[in-house]
């Protein structure tokens, strides 16, 4: 779950960074090109938004093994949907 401080930091970001965060929250791990396609933002805007999100520590960058020239971006903490899915899994046991 996101802390109050992290939520406040995200609230202070520009709208493009908030949109990129939401895209990652709903879609999961994506490359920069996939984020551009999903968000309909320019590549430059997505690059800037990812930098801002990485600066506050809510997005991580990893190697995309399907194409090592690209990076894979993901949210760095469990989201509400992840928490709900783990709760559902526990109920199923």
TrEMBL record:
Record's keyword annotation contains ATP-binding: no
InterPro entries attached to this UniProt entry: WH-like_DNA-bd_sf, WH_DNA-bd_sf
Lineage: superkingdom: Archaea
Bilayer-spanning residue ranges: none
One term of GO molecular function: DNA binding
UniProt entry keywords in alphabetical sequence: DNA-binding
SUPFAM superfamilies in UniProt: Winged helix' DNA-binding domain
Name recorded for this polypeptide: Winged helix-turn-helix DNA-binding
Source species of the chain: Haladaptatus litoreus
